[in-house]
Amino acid sequence: MTARYHQLAFTENVKAEQTAHGSREHYEKYEGAPAVPDPITAAEADFISARDSFYVATVGATGWPYVQHRGGPAGFVRVLDRHTLGMADFRGNRQYISIGNLHTDDRASLFFMDYANKRRLKALVRIKKVDLSENAELSEQLALPGYRAKVEHALIFTIAAFEWNCPAHITPRFSEAEIAPGIRDLHQQIALLEAEVKRLQG
Fold it and tell me: What top-level class would CATH report for the domain 37-169?
């Protein structure tokens, strides 16, 4: 956990719970660190660029949180600089709950998951909606040639803090694209074995 994530996530109530359960002393080492945003390193950039989905949590005017799954081709979330991510926002069910919530509070939490390798990256961000028709340079940066979803606008994520989370209890899951090479190899081996059986039978 980074010092900045600690500063933003560990409220006094959180610290009280840590004290009650005996973990406060472990986390006190983050006290007093400079309150500056966490810069994205090559590790985070590579991880995010390989993802084909993530989860975003926002809070609306009623105070209720809302979690949404966002997906696209691998790499649809782009690392724009050491503190900024961006994505083309595709048309979905047109409820616009996450977007609407940003009018109340632009702060959000992102969850990037790599189930196959039991890794996850959490980020605390501020989100801004951008009209791509008014920003040709950003439109080019976020373009996804060949992807047929309708782009409505862009979302820009300014990262305040991030944390690599514990892999415990993450059940490995694999996408069709991830298992396809292994299945292809099995089909090839089966074909060779079938051919050998026919040869021996003949």
Answer: mainly beta
DSSP state of 63: S
Q: What is the mean pLDDT of the chain?
A: 92
**What would the DSSP string read from start to end of 108-159?**
EEEEEEETTTTEEEEEEEEEEEE-GGG-HHHHHHH--TT--SPEEEEEEEEE
Contact 56, 62 (CB under 8 A): no
Pull the structure tokens for residue 28: 């006190």
Q: How confident is the model at residue 1 (pLDDT cuts 50, 70, 90)?
A: low
Task: Report the alpha-carbon distance of residue 121 to residue 5 in Å, rounded.
Answer: 12
CA angle 56, 61, 65 (to 5 degrees): 35
